[in-house]
Amino acid sequence: MARLTFADFVREQWSEIPPVATADLAGKTVMVIGANTGLGFEASKHFARMNPKRLIMACRNHEKGEAAVEKLRSETGFEPVELWIIDLAKFSSVSEFASKFEKDGGRLDILVQNAAAAPSIRQETSDGWENAIQVNNLSLPLLALLLLPRMMQTGREHGTTSRLVVVTSEMHYWGKIENEVIESGDIFGTLSSEKYCTPKVMASRYHDSKLLNVFFLRGLNDRLPRTPGTIIVNGVNPGYCYSELRRDLSGIRAAVNWIMEYLLAHTTEEGSRQLVWAAVGGAEEGEELRGAYISCSEVREVSDFVLTKDGMIAQDAIWDDMVKILVKIDPRVQKTIDEYLTSGART
C-alpha cells in the first residue's frame, strides 16, 4: 500500500493487533529513548519481561524518569533498569549522552528511537531550530550516528544482529517536502525558518517530520555495508494510539482528536507492540527488514513519493544537508561516516 486513504487508515485502526513479539534478550542491552511515558514506557515493560542484561530508559526529565523506573520495577519485577537523561531539544545533551555511553564500555543491541515532538505552532529551541525539526529530524539522527559504531561493534563481537528502530508514522504518507525546499541548498534551515513555518505548514509539521524520518532510515540503510548480520535499521508505525504526544492541542483540534481517539485509537500498550516487533520480531523476514517500514507487524511499502526518482533525489539531498549540519554539531559524526558507512550508491 503506497498510498493511504482515510478508509485505509480506519480499516487498520479497527484491525486486530497481534500479540507482542518475544525473544530471549539474556546478556543484551536495550535502550529506549522517550521511555518514561506512553509507547516508550509500554515497550520498555515488554523488553523487561524478556530479561535483558541491561535496560536503559532514556528520558528528558529526571523526576518523571525516576517515577517511571520505579513503576516498571514494581509492575515487572525487573531490576537491572537504568535511567539516563537526554534532552533532544539540546544538541549538547545528545552529545553528552553519547559520550557517556562511549565511556560506559558496554554493548548495545537494541536502540528504539521513540521520542518525538508534535507542535502546532513554531517554537524555537535554545539552539535556534524549530522544535520538531530539531527533536525529530536532527537530534535523533545525531544520536543514531553517534551510537552506530557501538551497535555495529556489538554485532561483530557477539555474532548477533543489532537493531536500530526509528519510530515513524503512517502520517508520512501525507507528508510533503516541496521541490523548492529540496533544491534550496539549505533544506533543514528552510524548514525550520520563521518565514517558512506558517500556520498552514505547522499544521502538517508532524506529517512532514515523519516523512523525514523515513528518508533518514532509508538513507542510513543505503549506506550500511552489505555484510550479513551486524545491524538492521528499520522504521515502525505504532498506529494511532492514545498518547501524550497530542497533549498540547487546544480548541477545535483538541475536540477532533478526542472524537478520533474515542472511535479509532489503539491503546498505548497495543501500539507499543509494534515497536517491540520492529526490535525483536520478524526473524523469518531476514534481509527484508533492512531499511523497512513496518506497520501492523509486517513490512509495508512506503509512500509513493519516497519510491519515485524525485523521492530518491530528495532522500540524498536531505541526507547530505543533515550530515553537513550534524558534523558541525559533533565532529564524531564524520568519523562514523568515514569508518562505518559507504557512499550510499544503490545497487
Shape: globular
CATH architecture: 3-Layer(aba) Sandwich
According to CATH, what is the class?
A: Alpha Beta
Overall pLDDT score: 91
**Helicity range of the residues?**
40-55%
Series of secondary-structure elements, N-terminal to C-terminal: HEHEHEHEHEHHHHEHHEEHHH
Query: What does the largest sheet look like?
Result: 8 strands, mixed
In DSSP terms (H or I, runs of 4 or more residues), the helix count works out at 14
> Which ranges are low-confidence, i.e. pLDDT below 50, for 5 or more consecutive residues?
none
* Strand residue percentage: 5-15%
- Per DSSP E runs of 2 or more residues, the count of β-strands stands at 8
Task: Please list the strands of the largest sheet in the order they lie side by side.
Answer: 3-2-1-4-5-6-7-8
CATH topology group: Rossmann fold
* End-to-end distance: 24 Å
What number of domains?
Answer: 1
In CATH, what is the homologous superfamily? Answer: NAD(P)-binding Rossmann-like Domain
Structural class: alpha/beta
User: Roughly how many Å is the radius of gyration?
Assistant: 19 Å
Label this structure with key terms.
alpha/beta; 347 residues; single chain; 49% helix; eight-stranded mixed sheet; 12% strand; NAD(P)-bd_dom_sf; Rossmann fold
Structure overview:
- With 347 residues, this protein is an alpha/beta fold.
- It has one domain (6-13, 22-337): Rossmann fold (3-Layer(aba) Sandwich), CATH 3.40.50.
- It has 14 helices and 8 strands.
- It has helices spanning 6-13, 38-48, 62-76, 91-104, 131-158, 179-182, 187-192, 199-203, 205-223, 251-264, 268-280, 304-307, 309-329, 332-340, and strands at 29-33, 54-59, 81-85, 110-113, 161-167, 230-237, 293-295, 298-300.
- Strands 3-2-1-4-5-6-7-8 form an 8-stranded mixed β-sheet, sandwiched between helices.
- It is globular and about 50 Å long.
- The mean pLDDT is 91.
